[in-house]
Amino acid sequence: MVDKYILAQYKDAVDKSSIVSKTDIQGKITYVNDKFCEVSEYTREELIGNTHAVIKDPEAPASIFKDMWKTISEGNIWKGIVKNIKKSGSYYYVNSMIYPMKDSSGKILEYISIRQDITELIKNQKLLKIYSTDNTTNLPNREKLNERLSSNNSELMAILLDIKDFTVINELYGEKVGDEILFEASQMLQSYITNESVILYRLDSDRYFILVDDQNLFAKYESLIEFTLLSEESFIINDIVLTFNISMARGSHELLSKTSLALKEAKKTNSRYFIYNEAIDTKEIHKLNIKRFNDFKEALLNDRVEPFFQPIVDANTEEVIKYEALARIIDAQGNIIAVSDFLSIAEKSSFFENFTRQIIQKIFAISKESNKEVSINLTYGNINSEKLVTYIENRLKKHNGPTITFEMLESEEITDYTILEDFIKMVKSYGALIAIDDFGTGYSNFTHLSKFKADFIKIDGTLISNVENDENSKLIVSILVDYAKKNNIKVIAEFVSSDKIAKILKNLGVDLLQGYYYGKAESAAFYKLITF
Fold first, then answer.
1. Which residues of 258-276 are buried (b: 16+ CB within 10 A; e: fewer)?
2. Tens digits of per-residue pLDDT, 157-193?
3. Is residue 1 part of a domain?
4. Do 273 and 372 reside in the same domain of the chain?
5. Whole-angstrom distance, CA of residue 131 vs CA of residue 477
6. Which of 126, 178, 297, 346 could bond 170 through an S-S bridge, CB–CB 3.0 to 4.6 Å?
């Protein structure tokens, strides 16, 4: 016989982890536990004597509850996911099990319901679907394509399609007609794809991407290009004839960049169709890379590596509370070159660690002199260097200025989270803070959030840019803000370019704002962070 003390512990465990209620055979509530009241926001007195209709979602199909009652009234257990409404009007999702309690003769005496709150899980699944789907065409988007290509090791066939002169169509007919054309074009393209192993994506603007996953179908889809997709008669929408520029590449890696290069070559040679070959991305690319490397090395040797700073403001007061430091190099002609233009070349250089040290040294010095909080961007490659991590620790030991925040990007590049966790533990021991950059670009952010022990998340700039006109972007931002607040994390929104966007973000609960509306990345002298 089970000890009463043990039974009491079982009950306590269920009460703390689950939403529990009992009803009589007519469905009137006779018992609710504390968790039920906490989640639903109703008091025990408001619930007992009522039915569960008090929390029922009015938009839920009646068939769900008809099936539920049929199942339990026949003495069987019902399981399912249900959306409920709180007293405040907000919703929550529960994974439910309703169990008919019977006497020894099998007569039903009452029903007991045990539920788990799965709202966050449902929201994250919605977020993943929204973020990986193009709003105009409902096709999987670039994010979804990158996810597929990043895990690929097999031979694939890639087809990139670009609608010729689409900007002219937009200007002549307006963006509404342009969006209709993009949707209709996606429907027509989809109608030609008849195999499960072939997927159509919308990349951006007027570009579509077809990925063929079965080598046995390569010849079929090459024929589709030549005899259908290149035919103007196949694509007449609203009396507008659409013409595609098309490129094709085969391989297991870098298919997006290869098809993009081939498409540029097609336009350069006035050809509507170009198949990628290795010769097209050698001479010009090598020439450009050599120039970028020489500019980088020359700037480094001549101390022309400079941090520029962009203000981050409090969303409520619009007071500047910190700055993000962004690396720049100054070439021999005095031109300012952004990090994005030379980072991929610099990272492969033996000089890269010296470059990072120079930037960090200057940022620490400027932070101390200006008495301003500063954020420093680091890559996984940076923290994977023992020498650089030691250098950062030594700098933190000597730093007696304002708090330093390290911004880190969650990416596929991270292979050993132990290195990441050790670095975060070290910098936090010196009072530094951690921010996750470009948060919202993928589900992996949620999966690994606990490993970052983040103080801030910076919402991906593409979401912020679209929040004024795209309800899906606004929904994603609201979900991310809600998620962050529940985890005591502050939210920074980048790419804030107007007062209207700023107001929307404030209403959504964003804590900090950053973007051209509040100031571009400028030299330390421009923002009076230094006196020399």
1. bbbbbbbbbeeeeebbbbb
2. 999 999 988 888 877 888 788 888 999 999 999 998 8
3. no
4. no
5. 11
6. 178
